[in-house]
Amino acid sequence: MRLTLCLLFLILPCASVGADTLTFEKNGSLNGEVTYKEEKFTIVATFRGRVTKTYIFNRSKVKEIEINDNLMNQGPPPDWLFKYEARQTNSPKAGANATSTPKSHTTEPQNRDFSKLPGMRPPPNEPDAPPPPLAPVVDPDSGVITTPVEATEKIRFNDGDSRTGKLLLISKDTITARIQGREIPYARALVKSITVIH
Predict the structure, then answer these.
(1) CA angle, residues 115, 16, 4, in degrees to nearest 5
(2) In total, how many domains does the chain have?
(3) Taking Cα atoms as reference points, which of 172, 179, 173, 129 lies closest to residue 152?
(4) If you count Cβ atoms within 10 Å of the first and of the last residue's Cβ in the chain, which end, N or C, has fewer?
(5) In a domain? residue 46
């Protein structure tokens, strides 16, 4: 009985950590704690021997994010990850262990009224504002005018539902996306995966 309780207390903290698997366009996948802000994914990955490293990837490198409990990676960090590793800064204010990543990726949108979002899902039967138009771009060589399309992601939920929108933020507790012109924070526990559409 005591052995069972001890094992239970060792397992429970692991289940509450926000872990994910990043799958890349090339070079496989990586497990760890993922955050996203300003078109960049940051992952804190743990390898054999409890070696922990922080990596930063541009959105274009990532194919999918699977929300799961996988924190550990097999073996040592592969060599190809070196160029994505967050570098140490030499700033005296930053301290000896500071990295070039922001201190917190858990900043939530400010001044939001979450009371209208039961279960942190969009309220039913409310009109959506259209997304702001993107400015036309003129190709300097050909003179062709094109209208850029905002990059999108497909968010799949644990209940089988899915939404397509612009991923804005992944924090410890929420995943925020702009869907049909509205910024909507979803509880991280509701999301199964996010596919990056290139």
Answers:
(1) 135
(2) 1
(3) 179
(4) N
(5) yes
Look at residues 140, 147, 142, 167 and name the one whose alpha carbon lies nearest to residue 67: 167
**113 located within any domain:** no
Q: What is the largest CA-CA distance in the chain?
A: 76
Per-residue model confidence as pLDDT tens digits over 41-91? 999 999 998 899 999 999 999 999 999 988 899 989 988 888 999 875 554
The CB-side HSE value for 146 (13 A sphere, CA atoms) comes to: 8
Distance separating alpha carbons of residues 187 and 100, to the nearest angstrom:
28
Instruction: Tell whether 8 is covered by a domain.
Output: no
pLDDT of 119-138, one tens digit each?
Answer: 444 444 444 444 455 666 67
Could you list the residue range(s) of the whole structural domain that residue 30 is in? 16-86+102-107+132-197
Asked whether residue 49 is domain-assigned, the answer is: yes
Cα–Cα separations (whole angstroms), residue 129 to 120, 161, 167: 18, 22, 17
Q: What does each C-alpha distance from 182 to 8, 123, 129, 131, 186 come to in angstroms? A: 41, 11, 7, 8, 12
- Does the CA dihedral 185-109-173-48 come out positive or negative? positive
Classify residue 156 by burial, with Cβ atoms within 10 Å: 0-12, 13-18, 19+: middle
Q: Are 97 and 59 in contact (CB under 8 A)?
A: no
